[in-house]
Each structure stands twice: as structure tokens, then as C-alpha cells.
Write a structure and sequence with these properties.
2 domains, 7 strands, alpha/beta, binds S-adenosylmethionine, Rossmann fold
């Protein structure tokens, strides 16, 4: 069985935090974000520039800044930029607590793969930096792990690995782990709502997947707590960055809340969504509080997508 063939399409991190993509999703929610070609883009905690350097090379007229506290990251990012011939990316060794308006404003801010790996007072420092550096119509991207899916993954990985230890032969142990992941995948296919395996498409090596599930250093958040933290910093949730792939809220939620209720209480709807899907991680787009958001008509979008499906085109 080829597992990768069965995985639903998902956008990569690079695509999800690409300012063009952030801009187009934000526009679906009625916002008018800044022009992308000449944007000022900041990545907080940029590592060696893996996410932001491709953006810099695609947008030669944009001003790109990456900050990281680790000097090795900054040296590596600068060296790679030079090798790529990228001239519009700048990397600063800086603690995010030092970020302030004196360092300029940014139209798009990206913070990937660190938010739930750090303590809550540091999460607040990041939100405070985003709040003070984001231009009035700017859009920020934050990735983070969420309950309940993240905890469920850990629990399942522990169970599968403990059971595997009962097999004395290495081959048998490996087969059991693969089988267990296949069963989980089948379950996810049967129960369309379940999101457990999404965002984890590479599991030809069962050990890698289980190890990454078990030993992830992240402390997952409840979406409601994330939304509350945003509000404390005068920020608000726009929608998920993988909006187009996911078609937004699941039919179960759409069927049980009216459009008015959804618009009035998006945080509650999104939290239900995490429980229903057993979601493990999020990649959320965020803007300043007070900007008027309109909820895209998901039913109409889905129907339109149906009209253009390959089935209907060949019919
Ligand atoms: C897990 S890496 C994320 C790399 C990058 N975002 C990516 O997706 O490839 C965490 C990054 O955060 C940076 N970092 C950690 N604590 C920081 C702090 N207090 N201020 C600024 N950067 C910090 C590290 O130097 C590192 O570059």
C-alpha cells in the first residue's frame, strides 16, 4: 500500500507563509492587505533563513528581515543569502524582546515552528512585538500546536511504541509500527473529520513519525487560549492559512451553527472544529483588532469548486 498516495493534498510551510498566499487568504475574509511586491516582511526566529530566503528571491523589490537570537543561525542565513545572490534580505542577531517600532514597521510578519515551544511569557513577547510592528492593514502568520490532536498523537505514539517493544525481532517491530500507522490512516479516511494525520505526510519511516510525535517539545494550546492572548495584544484571528485546501470549517460545524452565529462567535466555532477534527496544529493568519472581517461563504465556495472538479469537466 502506498501511503503517500492516500494523503490529502496539503500546502507546504513555504506556501502557507508566502506573503502572496497570506494576502489572498486575507482578501477572502474581506481585508485589503498591503501590496506584496514591495512589502516589508519580517520573520521572527528565522533559523538559517529556510522560509524567508525563498520569499526574498521571489520578491526582489520587497524588504526582507529575519531575526534570530542564535548567532550561528544568523551567520548561516547570511552565507546562504550570499550564495543565492539574494540582496534584499537582512539578518539580525536580536532577541525578540528587543523588537520595537525603532526597527521599522512590517506588512507581513511570519513566526513559524516556535510559538508553542516557548514559555507563555515569551509567547506574549512575540505577540507584543507583532502588535507594535505590524502595519495597520498588515497580516501575520503564526504556526503552533493545539489540543486535543497534539496530545492524542503523543498518547498513540507511546502506545504503539510500547506494544512494538514486545516483538523481539527488529523486522516484526517495524512491521507492527507501520501497520498501526496504516490503521490510523484508514481511520482518518473513514472518518473524514479526523485531522490527526494531516500535516504529517512523510511517514514511510514509521520510527521517524512516532519519534517526532512522542518527543515533540511543544506544549499545545487550546485555540480559545490562543485567541484570548491575541485579544490581549489588540490582535485578532483572520482564518487558517490553509483555508483553500481545507474549505474552512467542517460540515459538522457548518450544519450546527447559523452563519450569524458563526460570524458572531468564530472563536467558539474554531474551538469546536479542533475538537471535532482532533486537530494537532494550526497555521493561523492574524491582523489588528477592529479591522472588519467578513466570513467567506464556504458553502458557495465548495459548490463552486464542485462545478470545476475534474469529474464535472469530463462528464
Ligand atoms: C525552531 S527554529 C525556527 C526556524 C524557522 N522559523 C523555520 O521554520 O525554519 C527557532 C528559531 O528561533 C530563534 N529564537 C529562539 N529564541 C529567540 C529569541 N528569544 N529571540 C529571537 N530569536 C529566538 C532561534 O535562534 C531559531 O532561529
Amino acid at each position: 500500500m502506498n501511503v503517500e498516495e492516500k494523503i490529502e493534498p496539503a500546502l507546504s510551510v513555504l506556501e502557507l507563509s508566502d506573503p502572496f498566499h497570506m494576502c489572498s487568504v486575507a482578501m477572502r475574509f474581506g481585508l485589503v492587505p498591503p501590496a506584496v511586491e514591495t512589502a516589508r516582511v519580517l520573520e521572527i526566529g528565522c533559523g538559517s533563513g529556510g522560509s524567508i530566503l525563498p520569499i526574498a528571491s521571489l520578491l526582489p523589490d520587497a524588504k526582507i528581515v529575519g531575526i534570530a537570537s542564535d548567532p550561528h543561525d544568523v551567520v548561516a542565513a547570511k552565507a546562504i543569502a550570499e550564495k543565492m545572490g539574494v540582496k534584499n534580505a537582512h539578518f539580525w542577531q536580536l532577541d525578540w524582546s528587543e523588537l520595537g517600532p525603532h526597527l521599522g514597521e512590517y506588512d507581513y510578519i511570519v513566526c513559524h515552528d516556535l510559538f508553542t515551544r516557548i514559555e507563555s511569557h515569551l509567547q506574549r513577547e512575540i505577540l507584543s512585538a507583532i502588535s507594535s510592528l505590524l502595519t495597520p492593514s498588515g497580516v501575520a502568520y503564526l504556526s503552533y500546536d493545539v489540543k486535543p490532536g497534539f496530545d492524542v498523537r503523543k498518547m498513540l505514539a507511546n502506545f504503539i511504541s510500547k506494544k512494538a517493544a514486545h516483538f523481539t525481532k527488529l523486522g516484526d517491530r517495524f512491521s507492527w509500527k507501520m501497520e498501526a500507522l496504516f490503521v490510523l490512516d484508514e481511520l482518518a479516511k473513514e472518518c473524514k473529520e479526523l485531522d490527526l494525520l494531516r500535516h504529517d505526510p512523510v511517514y514511510s519511516n514509521a520510527d521517524d513519525v512516532l519519534t517526532s510525535w512522542m518527543h515533540a517539545e511543544s506544549v499545545p494550546l487550546l485555540f480559545t487560549d490562543f485567541a484570548r492572548m491575541l485579544a490581549d495584544h489588540n490582535l485578532q484571528f483572520i482564518g487558517e492559512s490553509d483555508f483553500f485546501v481545507r474549505e474552512d470549517l467542517s460540515p459538522l460545524i457548518l450544519g450546527s451553527m447559523s452563519r450569524t452565529e458563526l460570524e458572531r462567535d468564530r472563536v467558539r466555532a474554531e474551538q469546536y472544529e479542533d475538537f471535532v477534527r482532533c486537530r494537532a496544529s494550526r497555521r493561523s493568519l492574524v491582523c489588528h483588532s477592529g479591522l472588519p472581517l467578513t466570513l467567506p461563504d464556504v458553502r458557495r465556495l465548495t459548490a463552486t469548486a464542485g462545478a470545476y472538479s475534474s469529474d464535472s469537466l469530463t462528464a
